[in-house]
Amino acid sequence: QVQLVESGGGLVQAGGSLRLSCAASGSMFRFSVMGWYRQAPGKQREQVAVISFGGSTNYADSVKGRFTISRDNAKNTVYLQMNSLKPEDTAVYYCRLFQGDYWGQGTQVTVSS
Prior knowledge:
Layout: E1 4-7, E2 10-13, E3 18-24, E4 34-39, E5 46-51, E6 57-59, E7 67-72, E8 77-82, E9 91-97, E10 102-103, E11 107-112
Parallel strand pairs: 2-11
Antiparallel strand pairs: 1-3, 3-8, 4-5, 4-9, 5-6, 7-8, 9-10, 9-11
């Protein structure tokens, strides 16, 4: 059974930074695409960034140049560095392990103006 545990969310002022972490149990992590998603109140969940097992990345247009996804396969952990945060980045952020479609419980990010 795979478990994903996110951490690092919180309240930050616009222009600030946060780094989210997602630690995965099990052996599937290093072979799987990983992703970060977010869901704001009243909106559908959207993909923010994905990273392949080899380190190739892809970002939503709304976060390009501000967010960076990375992974440490030795630690079974994926990160999301978020800089220049905006109020519209406020959402619950989830990590996803594509192989088997596992999701974390989410971590709240709130950006005040």
